[in-house]
Amino acid sequence: MTSRVQCFTATPSTPITTTYGHNTRLHAEGINGVQLVSLEGLGDDHETVGENMGKSLAAWLDEEWLPQEIHVKMGISVKNTYVQCRTKGVDDVAEIMTQVTDDLFENWAEYNADAFVNAWDLGNYVADYLIAKSGSETCGCSTKIVD
Fold it and tell me: pTM higher than 0.85, yes or no?
């Protein structure tokens, strides 16, 4: 899959660079109006946060579609990726979101037959979950988080 890069400017001195596609990378400078989300409020128990996020994702999918075992498996993948990222010191929501998406995408054949969503839908839910649970401001288009 070929990636494409787009640059946006929130203010003249605040670049936000996004790369879409496989192995996506997002970058933002936290200066002049662009506020990065801090995950400090989630604490250091990454295993518990990942477990809760995976269960939330599965519950959300069950509510949106119908209860399926594949939703639990997707939740486990999301949890594992989150724990790996946080253990490596990654605390950027966009980087975690894209790693979750990349990991799911790499193994999508395992999920595809029973999934009504795609890897990006799940990555977006992860981003919405992390932003909401970190206490940061969300927007009206954010997915309702299932507890």
Answer: no
Scanning the chain, the segments in alpha helix (DSSP H) are 46-64, 69-87, 93-106, 108-112, 119-133
Report d(CA 9, CA 16) in Å as an integer. Answer: 6
End-to-end CA distance of the chain: 35
Measured CA to CA, the distance from residue 131 to residue 85 in angstroms comes to: 16
Contact 116, 134 (CB under 8 A): no
- For the stretch 3-49, pLDDT in tens is 333 333 333 444 444 443 444 444 455 455 667 788 988 999 999 99
Contact 4, 21 (CB under 8 A): yes
